Protein backbone atom coordinates (compact mmCIF):
# COMPACT_ATOMS: atom_id res chain seq x y z
CA UNK A 1 0.00 0.00 0.00
CA UNK A 2 2.80 2.44 0.80
CA UNK A 3 4.56 1.64 -2.49
CA UNK A 4 1.45 2.56 -4.47
CA UNK A 5 1.57 5.95 -2.79
CA UNK A 6 4.74 6.69 -4.72
CA UNK A 7 3.60 5.34 -8.08
CA UNK A 8 -0.13 4.77 -8.22
CA UNK A 9 -1.59 3.11 -11.30
CA UNK A 10 -4.69 5.31 -11.45
CA UNK A 11 -5.87 8.67 -10.15
CA UNK A 12 -8.05 7.13 -7.43
CA UNK A 13 -5.64 4.47 -6.16
CA UNK A 14 -5.13 6.37 -2.91
CA UNK A 15 -8.86 6.51 -2.14
CA UNK A 16 -8.91 5.66 1.57
CA UNK A 17 -12.09 3.65 1.12
CA UNK A 18 -10.06 1.04 -0.76
CA UNK A 19 -7.58 0.34 2.04
CA UNK A 20 -7.47 -0.80 5.63
CA UNK A 21 -4.54 1.32 6.73
CA UNK A 22 -2.47 0.21 9.75
CA UNK A 23 -2.41 2.35 12.87
CA UNK A 24 0.32 4.97 13.09
CA UNK A 25 1.79 3.18 16.11
CA UNK A 26 2.08 -0.04 14.08
CA UNK A 27 3.88 1.80 11.30
CA UNK A 28 6.33 3.35 13.76
CA UNK A 29 6.98 -0.03 15.37
CA UNK A 30 7.73 -1.54 11.97
CA UNK A 31 9.95 1.43 11.11
CA UNK A 32 11.92 0.90 14.33
CA UNK A 33 12.54 -2.74 13.40
CA UNK A 34 13.77 -1.74 9.96
CA UNK A 35 16.08 0.88 11.41
CA UNK A 36 17.68 -1.69 13.72
CA UNK A 37 18.39 -3.98 10.77
CA UNK A 38 19.91 -1.12 8.75
CA UNK A 39 22.10 0.04 11.64
CA UNK A 40 23.38 -3.51 12.13
CA UNK A 41 24.22 -3.69 8.43
CA UNK A 42 26.17 -0.42 8.58
CA UNK A 43 28.10 -1.69 11.61
CA UNK A 44 28.96 -5.08 10.13
CA UNK A 45 29.34 -4.69 6.35
CA UNK A 46 32.92 -4.46 5.06
CA UNK A 47 33.76 -0.98 3.79
CA UNK A 48 36.43 -0.19 1.23
CA UNK A 49 36.69 2.69 -1.20
CA UNK A 50 35.77 3.33 -3.87
CA UNK A 51 32.35 1.80 -3.22
CA UNK A 52 31.38 0.15 -6.50
CA UNK A 53 28.11 -1.23 -7.88
CA UNK A 54 29.10 -4.76 -6.78
CA UNK A 55 30.21 -3.89 -3.23
CA UNK A 56 27.90 -4.87 -0.34
CA UNK A 57 28.09 -1.31 0.99
CA UNK A 58 26.44 -0.07 -2.22
CA UNK A 59 23.10 -0.95 -0.62
CA UNK A 60 23.84 1.59 2.15
CA UNK A 61 24.53 4.26 -0.46
CA UNK A 62 21.31 3.20 -2.11
CA UNK A 63 19.43 3.69 1.16
CA UNK A 64 20.97 7.12 1.76
CA UNK A 65 20.05 8.31 -1.72
CA UNK A 66 16.57 6.85 -1.42
CA UNK A 67 16.05 8.84 1.78
CA UNK A 68 16.94 11.98 -0.16
CA UNK A 69 14.12 11.07 -2.55
CA UNK A 70 11.84 10.59 0.46
CA UNK A 71 12.82 14.04 1.74
CA UNK A 72 11.63 15.68 -1.46
CA UNK A 73 8.57 13.48 -1.91
CA UNK A 74 7.53 14.14 1.69
CA UNK A 75 7.79 17.88 1.14
CA UNK A 76 5.35 17.56 -1.78
CA UNK A 77 2.94 15.53 0.37
CA UNK A 78 3.19 18.04 3.24
CA UNK A 79 2.37 20.75 0.75
CA UNK A 80 -0.91 18.99 -0.04
CA UNK A 81 -2.01 18.61 3.59
CA UNK A 82 -4.63 20.96 5.06
CA UNK A 83 -2.87 24.11 6.17
CA UNK A 84 -4.13 23.76 9.74
CA UNK A 85 -2.23 20.48 10.08
CA UNK A 86 1.21 21.98 9.41
CA UNK A 87 3.23 24.89 10.70
CA UNK A 88 6.12 26.88 9.26
CA UNK A 89 9.62 26.73 10.70
CA UNK A 90 12.21 29.48 10.88
CA UNK A 91 14.80 26.95 9.81
CA UNK A 92 12.79 26.37 6.58
CA UNK A 93 12.38 29.94 5.27
CA UNK A 94 10.64 30.54 1.97
CA UNK A 95 11.84 33.16 -0.48
CA UNK A 96 10.68 36.65 0.55
CA UNK A 97 11.10 38.22 -2.90
CA UNK A 98 8.53 38.40 -5.69
CA UNK A 99 7.29 40.83 -8.25
CA UNK A 100 5.85 41.16 -11.75
CA UNK A 101 6.39 38.35 -14.24
CA UNK A 102 9.17 39.13 -16.74
CA UNK A 103 8.47 39.02 -20.46
CA UNK A 104 9.61 35.60 -21.64
CA UNK A 105 11.82 35.48 -24.70
CA UNK A 106 13.09 32.77 -27.02
CA UNK A 107 16.81 32.06 -27.12
CA UNK A 108 18.41 30.30 -30.10
CA UNK A 109 20.34 27.09 -29.53
CA UNK A 110 22.44 25.67 -32.34
CA UNK A 111 22.42 22.02 -33.34
CA UNK A 112 24.83 19.76 -31.50
CA UNK A 113 25.55 16.29 -30.19
CA UNK A 114 24.76 15.30 -26.63
CA UNK A 115 26.06 12.20 -24.88
CA UNK A 116 23.84 10.75 -22.19
CA UNK A 117 24.60 8.09 -19.60
CA UNK A 118 27.61 7.31 -17.47
CA UNK A 119 30.06 4.47 -17.04
CA UNK A 120 30.27 2.11 -14.08
CA UNK A 121 33.48 3.75 -12.84
CA UNK A 122 31.81 7.15 -12.47
CA UNK A 123 32.81 8.65 -9.08
CA UNK A 124 29.24 9.52 -8.04
CA UNK A 125 26.46 7.18 -6.97
CA UNK A 126 23.90 6.42 -9.65
CA UNK A 127 20.62 4.56 -10.06
CA UNK A 128 20.64 1.80 -12.63
CA UNK A 129 18.83 3.83 -15.31
CA UNK A 130 21.70 6.36 -15.40
CA UNK A 131 24.27 3.88 -16.70
CA UNK A 132 24.89 3.05 -20.34
CA UNK A 133 25.41 5.35 -23.29
CA UNK A 134 23.24 7.22 -25.75
CA UNK A 135 24.49 9.70 -28.35
CA UNK A 136 21.93 12.03 -29.90
CA UNK A 137 22.25 14.67 -32.62
CA UNK A 138 20.00 17.51 -31.51
CA UNK A 139 18.71 19.84 -34.26
CA UNK A 140 18.65 23.59 -33.63
CA UNK A 141 15.74 24.92 -31.60
CA UNK A 142 14.64 27.95 -29.60
CA UNK A 143 13.96 27.77 -25.88
CA UNK A 144 12.26 30.05 -23.39
CA UNK A 145 14.72 32.24 -21.53
CA UNK A 146 12.77 31.66 -18.33
CA UNK A 147 10.76 28.87 -16.83
CA UNK A 148 7.06 29.55 -17.34
CA UNK A 149 5.98 31.78 -14.48
CA UNK A 150 2.77 31.92 -12.49
CA UNK A 151 1.99 35.15 -14.30
CA UNK A 152 2.52 33.66 -17.76
CA UNK A 153 0.48 30.57 -16.90
CA UNK A 154 -2.29 32.79 -15.48
CA UNK A 155 -2.90 33.97 -19.07
CA UNK A 156 -3.67 30.36 -20.04
CA UNK A 157 -6.08 30.04 -17.10
CA UNK A 158 -7.86 33.29 -18.02
CA UNK A 159 -8.11 32.12 -21.65
CA UNK A 160 -10.22 29.17 -20.53
CA UNK A 161 -7.34 26.74 -20.55
CA UNK A 162 -8.97 24.36 -18.10
CA UNK A 163 -12.28 24.44 -19.95
CA UNK A 164 -11.08 23.87 -23.53
CA UNK A 165 -10.64 20.19 -24.36
CA UNK A 166 -8.89 20.84 -27.69
CA UNK A 167 -5.75 22.05 -25.93
CA UNK A 168 -5.40 18.88 -23.89
CA UNK A 169 -4.27 15.40 -24.78
CA UNK A 170 -6.89 12.69 -24.37
CA UNK A 171 -5.15 11.53 -21.19
CA UNK A 172 -4.87 15.10 -19.95
CA UNK A 173 -8.53 15.94 -20.49
CA UNK A 174 -9.62 12.72 -18.78
CA UNK A 175 -7.50 13.69 -15.77
CA UNK A 176 -8.79 17.29 -15.74
CA UNK A 177 -12.39 16.09 -15.81
CA UNK A 178 -11.76 13.48 -13.12
CA UNK A 179 -10.21 15.89 -10.62
CA UNK A 180 -12.27 18.87 -11.86
CA UNK A 181 -9.13 21.00 -12.06
CA UNK A 182 -9.62 24.70 -12.80
CA UNK A 183 -6.13 25.99 -12.04
CA UNK A 184 -2.79 24.59 -10.78
CA UNK A 185 -2.85 22.35 -7.71
CA UNK A 186 -0.87 24.70 -5.47
CA UNK A 187 -2.86 27.82 -6.33
CA UNK A 188 -5.59 28.84 -3.89
CA UNK A 189 -8.49 30.88 -5.25
CA UNK A 190 -8.87 34.32 -3.65
CA UNK A 191 -11.85 35.32 -5.85
CA UNK A 192 -12.10 37.52 -8.94
CA UNK A 193 -9.40 35.53 -10.79
CA UNK A 194 -6.92 36.29 -8.02
CA UNK A 195 -4.92 33.56 -6.33
CA UNK A 196 -2.64 32.78 -3.43
CA UNK A 197 0.17 30.23 -3.51
CA UNK A 198 0.35 27.31 -1.11
CA UNK A 199 3.95 26.74 -0.10
CA UNK A 200 4.97 23.88 2.15
CA UNK A 201 3.47 25.27 5.35
CA UNK A 202 2.04 28.68 4.53
CA UNK A 203 0.07 30.65 1.95
CA UNK A 204 1.31 33.84 0.31
CA UNK A 205 -0.01 36.13 -2.45
CA UNK A 206 0.66 34.41 -5.80
CA UNK A 207 4.19 35.49 -6.85
CA UNK A 208 3.88 36.24 -10.55
CA UNK A 209 7.60 35.88 -11.20
CA UNK A 210 8.04 32.49 -9.53
CA UNK A 211 7.85 29.41 -11.76
CA UNK A 212 4.43 27.79 -12.05
CA UNK A 213 4.23 24.25 -10.64
CA UNK A 214 2.06 21.87 -12.63
CA UNK A 215 2.00 18.29 -13.82
CA UNK A 216 3.02 17.18 -17.31
CA UNK A 217 -0.57 17.17 -18.58
CA UNK A 218 -1.06 20.83 -17.64
CA UNK A 219 2.30 21.82 -19.10
CA UNK A 220 1.46 20.06 -22.36
CA UNK A 221 -1.94 21.79 -22.56
CA UNK A 222 -0.25 25.18 -22.08
CA UNK A 223 2.14 24.45 -24.95
CA UNK A 224 -0.73 23.41 -27.22
CA UNK A 225 -2.59 26.61 -26.33
CA UNK A 226 0.48 28.74 -27.01
CA UNK A 227 0.98 27.00 -30.35
CA UNK A 228 -2.60 27.83 -31.35
CA UNK A 229 -2.55 31.47 -30.32
CA UNK A 230 0.89 32.18 -31.83
CA UNK A 231 0.84 29.89 -34.85
CA UNK A 232 4.29 28.56 -33.88
CA UNK A 233 5.11 24.97 -32.85
CA UNK A 234 5.66 25.04 -29.10
CA UNK A 235 6.23 21.97 -26.96
CA UNK A 236 8.28 20.73 -24.02
CA UNK A 237 11.94 19.85 -24.57
CA UNK A 238 13.09 16.27 -24.89
CA UNK A 239 15.66 14.89 -22.48
CA UNK A 240 18.35 15.38 -25.11
CA UNK A 241 17.27 18.99 -25.78
CA UNK A 242 17.42 19.76 -22.07
CA UNK A 243 20.97 18.40 -21.99
CA UNK A 244 21.82 20.58 -24.98
CA UNK A 245 20.77 23.61 -22.90
CA UNK A 246 22.83 22.33 -19.98
CA UNK A 247 25.89 21.83 -22.19
CA UNK A 248 25.54 25.32 -23.68
CA UNK A 249 25.17 26.82 -20.21
CA UNK A 250 28.50 25.34 -19.14
CA UNK A 251 27.20 24.45 -15.67
CA UNK A 252 29.49 21.74 -14.26
CA UNK A 253 28.44 18.68 -12.26
CA UNK A 254 27.86 19.01 -8.54
CA UNK A 255 31.37 17.95 -7.48
CA UNK A 256 32.83 20.92 -9.40
CA UNK A 257 30.51 23.61 -8.03
CA UNK A 258 32.24 26.42 -6.20
CA UNK A 259 28.75 27.49 -5.17
CA UNK A 260 25.32 26.27 -6.17
CA UNK A 261 24.48 27.41 -9.73
CA UNK A 262 20.79 27.73 -8.89
CA UNK A 263 18.10 27.40 -6.23
CA UNK A 264 19.04 23.80 -5.49
CA UNK A 265 20.46 21.60 -2.74
CA UNK A 266 18.56 23.58 -0.04
CA UNK A 267 21.19 26.29 -0.45
CA UNK A 268 18.98 29.30 -1.18
CA UNK A 269 15.50 28.97 0.30
CA UNK A 270 12.76 26.45 0.95
CA UNK A 271 10.52 27.43 -1.94
CA UNK A 272 10.88 28.56 -5.52
CA UNK A 273 12.30 32.01 -6.16
CA UNK A 274 12.02 34.52 -9.06
CA UNK A 275 12.85 33.03 -12.47
CA UNK A 276 15.15 35.98 -13.14
CA UNK A 277 17.64 34.67 -10.58
CA UNK A 278 20.64 32.58 -11.69
CA UNK A 279 20.93 33.56 -15.37
CA UNK A 280 23.51 31.39 -17.14
CA UNK A 281 24.35 31.71 -20.85
CA UNK A 282 21.10 33.60 -21.40
CA UNK A 283 18.88 31.11 -19.57
CA UNK A 284 17.31 31.36 -16.13
CA UNK A 285 17.35 28.30 -13.86
CA UNK A 286 18.81 25.65 -16.15
CA UNK A 287 19.12 23.73 -12.90
CA UNK A 288 17.20 24.21 -9.68
CA UNK A 289 14.16 26.21 -8.60
CA UNK A 290 11.68 23.57 -9.86
CA UNK A 291 12.07 20.37 -11.84
CA UNK A 292 11.38 20.71 -15.57
CA UNK A 293 9.04 18.33 -17.39
CA UNK A 294 10.25 16.82 -20.66
CA UNK A 295 8.52 15.12 -23.57
CA UNK A 296 10.62 12.00 -23.02
CA UNK A 297 9.22 8.88 -21.32
CA UNK A 298 12.00 7.19 -19.39
CA UNK A 299 13.67 4.05 -20.73
CA UNK A 300 17.10 2.49 -20.39
CA UNK A 301 20.16 3.52 -22.34
CA UNK A 302 22.08 1.04 -24.44
CA UNK A 303 23.90 -1.16 -21.95
CA UNK A 304 21.23 -0.75 -19.25
CA UNK A 305 21.25 -3.40 -16.54
CA UNK A 306 18.98 -3.82 -13.55
CA UNK A 307 20.74 -3.57 -10.21
CA UNK A 308 20.11 -6.86 -8.37
CA UNK A 309 19.63 -5.12 -5.01
CA UNK A 310 16.75 -2.98 -6.30
CA UNK A 311 15.47 -4.71 -9.39
CA UNK A 312 12.25 -2.70 -9.66
CA UNK A 313 13.55 0.83 -9.17
CA UNK A 314 13.51 1.61 -12.89
CA UNK A 315 11.98 -1.16 -14.99
CA UNK A 316 8.35 -0.63 -13.85
CA UNK A 317 8.62 2.92 -15.21
CA UNK A 318 9.80 1.82 -18.67
CA UNK A 319 6.18 1.78 -19.82
CA UNK A 320 5.91 5.06 -21.79
CA UNK A 321 3.67 6.36 -18.96
CA UNK A 322 6.42 8.00 -16.88
CA UNK A 323 7.99 11.19 -18.23
CA UNK A 324 11.41 12.44 -17.21
CA UNK A 325 11.86 15.55 -15.10
CA UNK A 326 15.24 17.29 -15.25
CA UNK A 327 17.23 19.92 -13.42
CA UNK A 328 16.20 19.41 -9.82
CA UNK A 329 14.27 21.69 -7.47
CA UNK A 330 15.11 23.81 -4.45
CA UNK A 331 14.97 20.68 -2.24
CA UNK A 332 16.86 18.33 -4.57
CA UNK A 333 20.01 17.04 -2.89
CA UNK A 334 22.56 14.31 -3.47
CA UNK A 335 22.01 12.27 -6.62
CA UNK A 336 18.94 14.33 -7.52
CA UNK A 337 21.15 17.38 -8.00
CA UNK A 338 23.71 15.70 -10.28
CA UNK A 339 24.01 16.04 -14.03
CA UNK A 340 23.14 12.41 -14.76
CA UNK A 341 20.11 12.04 -12.50
CA UNK A 342 17.07 10.53 -14.25
CA UNK A 343 13.78 10.63 -12.37
CA UNK A 344 10.42 10.07 -13.99
CA UNK A 345 6.84 10.29 -12.79
CA UNK A 346 3.40 9.54 -14.14
CA UNK A 347 2.12 12.46 -16.14
CA UNK A 348 -0.64 13.34 -13.68
CA UNK A 349 1.74 13.44 -10.70
CA UNK A 350 2.69 16.59 -8.82
CA UNK A 351 6.21 17.38 -7.76
CA UNK A 352 7.97 20.70 -7.24
CA UNK A 353 7.95 20.71 -11.03
CA UNK A 354 7.30 23.27 -13.73
CA UNK A 355 8.45 23.62 -17.31
CA UNK A 356 10.23 25.57 -19.99
CA UNK A 357 8.79 25.56 -23.50
CA UNK A 358 10.73 25.32 -26.71
CA UNK A 359 9.88 26.21 -30.31
CA UNK A 360 10.81 23.47 -32.75
CA UNK A 361 9.56 22.00 -36.02
CA UNK A 362 11.20 18.67 -35.22
CA UNK A 363 8.81 15.94 -34.02
CA UNK A 364 9.44 14.09 -30.80
CA UNK A 365 10.64 10.53 -31.27
CA UNK A 366 9.49 8.21 -28.48
CA UNK A 367 11.81 5.26 -27.96
CA UNK A 368 9.88 2.03 -27.36
CA UNK A 369 10.53 0.24 -24.09
CA UNK A 370 13.48 -2.10 -23.81
CA UNK A 371 13.11 -5.84 -23.88
CA UNK A 372 11.52 -6.96 -20.63
CA UNK A 373 14.35 -8.51 -18.65
CA UNK A 374 12.87 -9.00 -15.20
CA UNK A 375 13.27 -12.73 -14.64
CA UNK A 376 9.79 -13.41 -13.28
CA UNK A 377 7.95 -11.13 -15.72
CA UNK A 378 9.84 -12.56 -18.70
CA UNK A 379 9.14 -16.06 -17.45
CA UNK A 380 5.42 -15.32 -17.45
CA UNK A 381 5.60 -13.65 -20.87
CA UNK A 382 6.94 -16.93 -22.22
CA UNK A 383 4.44 -18.95 -20.13
CA UNK A 384 1.50 -16.98 -21.51
CA UNK A 385 2.54 -16.12 -25.06
CA UNK A 386 5.55 -18.26 -25.91
CA UNK A 387 6.22 -21.77 -27.10
CA UNK A 388 4.58 -24.99 -25.98
CA UNK A 389 6.82 -27.39 -24.08
CA UNK A 390 6.62 -31.17 -23.70
CA UNK A 391 3.29 -31.30 -25.54
CA UNK A 392 1.51 -29.57 -22.65
CA UNK A 393 -1.09 -27.11 -24.02
CA UNK A 394 -0.78 -23.41 -23.32
CA UNK A 395 -2.24 -23.12 -19.82
CA UNK A 396 -3.84 -19.62 -19.96
CA UNK A 397 -5.42 -20.43 -23.33
CA UNK A 398 -6.67 -23.80 -22.11
CA UNK A 399 -8.32 -22.18 -19.08
CA UNK A 400 -10.37 -19.96 -21.39
CA UNK A 401 -11.31 -22.90 -23.61
CA UNK A 402 -12.47 -24.92 -20.59
CA UNK A 403 -14.51 -21.94 -19.39
CA UNK A 404 -16.12 -21.74 -22.80
CA UNK A 405 -17.17 -25.39 -22.50
CA UNK A 406 -18.67 -24.70 -19.08
CA UNK A 407 -20.57 -21.65 -20.29
CA UNK A 408 -22.10 -23.49 -23.22
CA UNK A 409 -24.50 -21.31 -25.18
CA UNK A 410 -25.09 -18.87 -22.33
CA UNK A 411 -24.13 -15.23 -22.81
CA UNK A 412 -21.33 -13.70 -20.73
CA UNK A 413 -21.67 -9.93 -20.49
CA UNK A 414 -18.89 -9.35 -17.94
CA UNK A 415 -16.01 -11.59 -16.93
CA UNK A 416 -13.19 -11.14 -14.43
CA UNK A 417 -9.76 -12.74 -14.74
CA UNK A 418 -8.38 -12.37 -11.21
CA UNK A 419 -4.66 -12.96 -10.83
CA UNK A 420 -4.35 -12.44 -14.58
CA UNK A 421 -0.53 -12.10 -14.56
CA UNK A 422 0.52 -10.95 -18.07
CA UNK A 423 -2.98 -11.28 -19.46
CA UNK A 424 -3.28 -14.15 -21.95
CA UNK A 425 -6.41 -15.64 -20.34
CA UNK A 426 -7.98 -12.16 -20.28
CA UNK A 427 -7.57 -11.86 -24.04
CA UNK A 428 -8.71 -15.46 -24.67
CA UNK A 429 -11.87 -15.00 -22.59
CA UNK A 430 -12.74 -11.99 -24.75
CA UNK A 431 -13.24 -14.34 -27.69
CA UNK A 432 -16.64 -15.24 -26.23
CA UNK A 433 -17.25 -12.69 -23.45
CA UNK A 434 -18.51 -9.18 -24.16
CA UNK A 435 -16.14 -7.52 -21.71
CA UNK A 436 -13.27 -8.91 -19.64
CA UNK A 437 -11.39 -7.26 -16.77
CA UNK A 438 -7.92 -8.54 -15.88
CA UNK A 439 -6.65 -7.73 -12.39
CA UNK A 440 -3.32 -8.60 -10.81
CA UNK A 441 -1.49 -7.43 -7.71
CA UNK A 442 1.72 -6.89 -9.69
CA UNK A 443 1.95 -3.64 -11.67
CA UNK A 444 4.81 -5.22 -13.61
CA UNK A 445 2.55 -8.02 -14.83
CA UNK A 446 -0.29 -5.63 -15.61
CA UNK A 447 2.06 -3.47 -17.68
CA UNK A 448 2.61 -6.39 -20.07
CA UNK A 449 -1.13 -6.78 -20.60
CA UNK A 450 -1.45 -3.04 -21.24
CA UNK A 451 1.45 -3.11 -23.68
CA UNK A 452 0.02 -6.05 -25.59
CA UNK A 453 -3.39 -4.38 -25.73
CA UNK A 454 -2.14 -0.95 -26.80
CA UNK A 455 0.80 -1.87 -29.03
CA UNK A 456 -0.15 -5.38 -30.12
CA UNK A 457 3.35 -6.54 -29.31
CA UNK A 458 5.61 -7.41 -26.38
CA UNK A 459 9.36 -8.00 -26.29
CA UNK A 460 11.20 -9.92 -23.63
CA UNK A 461 14.40 -11.84 -22.98
CA UNK A 462 14.61 -15.25 -21.32
CA UNK A 463 17.66 -17.04 -19.89
CA UNK A 464 19.24 -19.86 -21.83
CA UNK A 465 22.15 -20.77 -19.57
CA UNK A 466 24.22 -18.72 -17.18
CA UNK A 467 24.31 -15.14 -18.43
CA UNK A 468 23.22 -16.09 -21.95
CA UNK A 469 19.74 -14.97 -22.94
CA UNK A 470 17.55 -15.09 -26.02
CA UNK A 471 15.29 -12.30 -27.21
CA UNK A 472 11.67 -12.76 -28.22
CA UNK A 473 8.90 -10.71 -29.75
CA UNK A 474 5.27 -11.82 -29.69
CA UNK A 475 2.57 -10.07 -31.68
CA UNK A 476 -1.09 -10.27 -30.80
CA UNK A 477 -1.82 -10.85 -34.48
CA UNK A 478 0.24 -14.05 -34.43
CA UNK A 479 -2.08 -15.62 -31.86
CA UNK A 480 -5.28 -14.36 -33.46
CA UNK A 481 -6.33 -11.90 -30.75
CA UNK A 482 -6.21 -8.51 -32.44
CA UNK A 483 -10.00 -8.29 -32.69
CA UNK A 484 -10.59 -8.49 -28.91
CA UNK A 485 -8.46 -5.60 -27.63
CA UNK A 486 -11.45 -3.27 -27.29
CA UNK A 487 -13.19 -5.81 -25.07
CA UNK A 488 -10.53 -6.04 -22.33
CA UNK A 489 -9.16 -3.81 -19.60
CA UNK A 490 -6.32 -4.28 -17.12
CA UNK A 491 -6.08 -3.01 -13.55
CA UNK A 492 -3.66 -3.37 -10.69
CA UNK A 493 -5.55 -4.57 -7.64
CA UNK A 494 -5.56 -6.66 -4.50
CA UNK A 495 -7.84 -9.73 -4.56
CA UNK A 496 -8.58 -9.12 -0.88
CA UNK A 497 -9.52 -5.50 -1.43
CA UNK A 498 -11.10 -4.96 -4.83
CA UNK A 499 -12.62 -1.59 -5.66
CA UNK A 500 -16.42 -1.31 -5.62
CA UNK A 501 -16.80 -1.07 -9.40
CA UNK A 502 -15.56 -4.64 -9.88
CA UNK A 503 -18.90 -6.42 -9.57
CA UNK A 504 -21.78 -7.84 -11.59
CA UNK A 505 -19.82 -10.66 -13.23
CA UNK A 506 -21.25 -13.65 -15.09
CA UNK A 507 -17.85 -15.37 -14.92
CA UNK A 508 -14.93 -15.05 -12.50
CA UNK A 509 -11.71 -16.98 -13.07
CA UNK A 510 -9.10 -17.16 -10.30
CA UNK A 511 -6.12 -19.08 -11.63
CA UNK A 512 -3.40 -20.34 -9.27
CA UNK A 513 -4.44 -17.69 -6.78
CA UNK A 514 -6.11 -19.07 -3.65
CA UNK A 515 -2.98 -20.75 -2.26
CA UNK A 516 -1.14 -17.42 -2.48
CA UNK A 517 -3.66 -15.41 -0.47
CA UNK A 518 -3.32 -14.52 3.20
CA UNK A 519 -6.99 -15.35 3.86
CA UNK A 520 -8.52 -17.46 1.06
CA UNK A 521 -11.80 -18.09 2.93
CA UNK A 522 -12.31 -14.34 3.29
CA UNK A 523 -11.59 -13.92 -0.42
CA UNK A 524 -14.20 -16.53 -1.33
CA UNK A 525 -16.78 -14.82 0.88
CA UNK A 526 -16.06 -11.43 -0.69
CA UNK A 527 -15.93 -12.57 -4.31
CA UNK A 528 -19.38 -14.15 -3.98
CA UNK A 529 -20.99 -10.71 -3.81
CA UNK A 530 -19.37 -9.74 -7.10
CA UNK A 531 -20.83 -12.67 -9.06
CA UNK A 532 -24.35 -12.59 -10.46
CA UNK A 533 -26.78 -15.33 -9.41
CA UNK A 534 -26.33 -18.06 -12.00
CA UNK A 535 -22.80 -16.89 -12.70
CA UNK A 536 -19.70 -19.10 -12.51
CA UNK A 537 -16.66 -19.05 -10.27
CA UNK A 538 -13.82 -21.06 -11.79
CA UNK A 539 -10.92 -21.85 -9.48
CA UNK A 540 -7.59 -23.40 -10.42
CA UNK A 541 -4.83 -24.21 -7.97
CA UNK A 542 -2.11 -26.79 -7.34
CA UNK A 543 -2.90 -26.35 -3.62
CA UNK A 544 0.70 -25.56 -2.74
CA UNK A 545 0.03 -24.22 0.73
CA UNK A 546 2.99 -22.36 2.23
CA UNK A 547 3.12 -20.37 5.46
CA UNK A 548 5.12 -17.63 3.72
CA UNK A 549 1.92 -16.76 1.86
CA UNK A 550 -0.91 -18.09 4.04
CA UNK A 551 -0.89 -18.63 7.82
CA UNK A 552 -1.38 -22.34 8.48
CA UNK A 553 -4.65 -21.79 10.31
CA UNK A 554 -5.99 -20.08 7.15
CA UNK A 555 -5.21 -22.95 4.78
CA UNK A 556 -8.39 -24.25 3.18
CA UNK A 557 -6.98 -27.78 3.25
CA UNK A 558 -3.84 -29.84 3.07
CA UNK A 559 -3.71 -30.30 6.85
CA UNK A 560 -5.09 -32.27 9.79
CA UNK A 561 -7.94 -30.80 11.84
CA UNK A 562 -8.78 -32.65 15.05
CA UNK A 563 -6.92 -35.63 13.68
CA UNK A 564 -8.98 -35.70 10.46
CA UNK A 565 -7.60 -35.11 6.98
CA UNK A 566 -8.98 -31.97 5.36
CA UNK A 567 -8.32 -31.47 1.65
CA UNK A 568 -8.58 -28.17 -0.15
CA UNK A 569 -11.61 -29.46 -2.00
CA UNK A 570 -13.22 -30.06 1.42
CA UNK A 571 -12.42 -26.49 2.36
CA UNK A 572 -13.86 -25.16 -0.89
CA UNK A 573 -17.09 -27.02 -0.25
CA UNK A 574 -17.29 -25.61 3.26
CA UNK A 575 -16.79 -22.06 1.99
CA UNK A 576 -18.90 -22.21 -1.15
CA UNK A 577 -21.68 -24.79 -0.65
CA UNK A 578 -24.07 -22.37 1.08
CA UNK A 579 -24.35 -20.25 -2.08
CA UNK A 580 -22.80 -22.33 -4.87
CA UNK A 581 -23.13 -25.75 -6.46
CA UNK A 582 -20.13 -27.62 -7.86
CA UNK A 583 -20.52 -28.31 -11.57
CA UNK A 584 -19.22 -31.76 -12.46
CA UNK A 585 -16.07 -33.33 -11.11
CA UNK A 586 -12.81 -31.50 -10.53
CA UNK A 587 -10.33 -31.94 -13.33
CA UNK A 588 -6.56 -31.73 -13.55
CA UNK A 589 -4.99 -29.12 -15.79
CA UNK A 590 -1.20 -29.41 -16.20
CA UNK A 591 1.15 -26.58 -17.05
CA UNK A 592 4.86 -26.10 -17.71
CA UNK A 593 6.86 -22.99 -16.83
CA UNK A 594 10.25 -22.58 -18.46
CA UNK A 595 13.06 -21.32 -16.23
CA UNK A 596 16.03 -21.92 -18.54
CA UNK A 597 16.64 -23.93 -21.68
CA UNK A 598 17.10 -27.05 -19.53
CA UNK A 599 15.04 -26.37 -16.44
CA UNK A 600 11.24 -26.45 -16.33
CA UNK A 601 8.53 -26.54 -13.69
CA UNK A 602 5.84 -29.13 -14.37
CA UNK A 603 2.75 -28.60 -12.21
CA UNK A 604 -0.79 -29.91 -12.13
CA UNK A 605 -3.53 -27.50 -11.13
CA UNK A 606 -6.98 -28.71 -10.07
CA UNK A 607 -9.88 -26.94 -11.70
CA UNK A 608 -13.30 -26.65 -10.05
CA UNK A 609 -16.30 -24.73 -11.37
CA UNK A 610 -18.99 -23.38 -9.06
CA UNK A 611 -22.31 -21.87 -10.03
CA UNK A 612 -23.88 -19.31 -7.74
CA UNK A 613 -27.39 -20.35 -6.75
CA UNK A 614 -28.47 -17.69 -4.25
CATH class of the largest domain: Alpha Beta
Distance between the termini: 34 Å
What portion of the residues fall into strands of 2 or more residues? 15-25%
Decide which structural class fits the backbone: alpha+beta
The total of beta strands comes to: 27
CATH homologous superfamily grouping of the largest domain: paralog of FGE (formylglycine-generating enzyme)
The name of the CATH architecture of the largest domain is: Alpha-Beta Complex
Q: What is the CA-atom radius of gyration, in angstroms? A: 27 Å
Q: Which spans have pLDDT < 50 for at least 5 consecutive residues?
A: none
Task: Give the overall shape, derived from the CA principal axes.
Answer: globular
Into which percent range does the helicity of residues fall? 25-40%
Q: Please state the average pLDDT score.
A: 93
List the helices and strands and how they pair.
Elements: H1 2-6, H2 24-44, H3 58-79, E1 106-109, E2 112-116, E3 134-138, E4 141-144, H4 150-158, H5 170-179, E5 187-191, E6 194-198, E7 203-205, H6 216-230, E8 234-235, H7 239-249, E9 279-280, E10 283-284, E11 291-297, E12 322-326, E13 343-346, E14 353-354, E15 358-359, H8 375-385, H9 395-407, E16 412-418, H10 424-429, E17 433-440, H11 443-455, E18 457-465, E19 468-475, E20 488-492, E21 505-511, H12 520-528, E22 531-541, E23 559-561, E24 564-566, H13 568-576, E25 580-582, E26 587-596, E27 599-612
Parallel strand pairs: 11-14, 16-17, 16-21, 17-20, 21-22
Antiparallel strand pairs: 1-4, 2-3, 4-15, 5-6, 6-7, 8-15, 9-10, 11-12, 12-13, 18-19, 22-27, 23-24, 25-27, 26-27
